[in-house]
Fold this sequence. Notes:
This protein is of the alpha+beta class. Helix content is 66%, strand content 9%. It has a 4-stranded antiparallel beta sheet with strand order 4-3-6-5, with helices on both faces. A 3-stranded antiparallel beta sheet has the order 2-1-7. Helix 3 (76-102) crosses helix 6 (140-160), helix 13 (333-346) packs antiparallel against helix 14 (351-363) and helix 15 (367-380) runs antiparallel to helix 16. The longest helix has 46 residues, at 435-480.
Amino acid sequence: xxxxxxxxxxxxxxxxxxxxxxxxxxxxxxxxxxxxxxxxxxxxxxxxxxxxxxxxxxxxxxxxxxxxxxxxxxxxxxxxxxxxxxxxxxxxxxxxxxxxxxxxxxxxxxxxxxxxxxxxxxxxxxxxxxxxxxxxxxxxxxxxxxxxxxxxxxxxxxxxxxxxxxxxxxxxxxxxxxxxxxxxxxxxxxxxxxxxxxxxxxxxxxxxxxxxxxxxxxxxxxxxxxxxxxxxxxxxxxxxxxxxxxxxxxxxxxxxxxxxxxxxxxxxxxxxxxxxxxxxxxxxxxxxxxxxxxxxxxxxxxxxxxxxxxxxxxxxxxxxxxxxxxxxxxxxxxxxxxxxxxxxxxxxxxxxxxxxxxxxxxxxxxxxxxxxxxxxxxxxxxxxxxxxxxxxxxxxxxxxxxxxxxxxxxxxxxxxxxxxxxxxxxxxxxxxxxxxxxxxxxxxxxxxxxxxxxxxxxxxxxxxxxxxxxxxxxxxxxxxx
Length: 481
């Protein structure tokens, strides 16, 4: 039944989430992260503590299963991304557990038992729980170890996230201003001209003209000019650039600023209203604001601390393709090329390494080299539409539109149900003036939408039938009593 199927999938995910790592911070990194050498028996070393290939592969497969349970099947290149993310998770976990030991954080058997019991309550029986463990190739002892590590890391995160929130912090977070502005964008890099325009309009405002009316006439902010430049209420953390926010909050109601320089140009700002941190409304929101600030500032403090820990760590990665992905993340593209070439020398028949290297060449504007790699990928994995799509895009950059169109058509044939792919192909064929091909993609998109709608209706009908059946069973059970 549908309900049983959904419950079973959810329970599988629960086990996988417990196995997964609670630390998924993005690596910022320092120099000297990548080691070199022969063929070691580990995929990485973190402060002398190794990550074995067996440990890495188990975690990678678990992550793949988790992703596929949640969002469906992954493409080959997406799986490579998961592989890299898995390594980052493992490195972070090793570092965190090392810090757990350093800070002498202990997890009691009572806490582990309670967490395990809470997990078991999500299953209908002990037998079903044990079945799910076996499906994930785990024993209860191994699961307890994962729970212990997760609880320890959670305790460390709480310890290193502690912040003090003052009354002034709460007041500043609560306060808001309502402001209007006129933006004068910089044209052709001439900042002086933008400032001069701002000063001319400011003189008109000082002469008695309305900022709102002048905004409609002069502002380069198309989103607000028709509203007289009105930005409505905003707080200090609303996302406006620092210079603008500081200038606005320094103004009294009705006051107009001098020209304020930001990355967008020059602004004239007028505050039209303020929301001060006083009165019953503020008092009613204080605790909620305090909790939000503790969470936000605590997360910031923890991230800063952990990045310092990771930057200071000695981390050696032995797999060249994983090293290459890190270099791409750090925008060290020539180094990424070198590592992908080393990886290809080890696995010459791996088309996904060719695809990844081609993408790096494209970032380096070496389109000819990118095309060679994409052609190799297509030759090795002709049934993957992603290879054909990237090869076609590279051909287009060299004005080889006939060949590009052939690759796009091949990609379209290989995956008739990928909505995103066909949407991209529709845009490409339209931009190339290939109306017949564009019409084919449009029809495929319509067919996919119709299929998805039919699936949705069928699913809702099954849910209704399940609900009706469960209702009848409940009634029968009640009558039997």
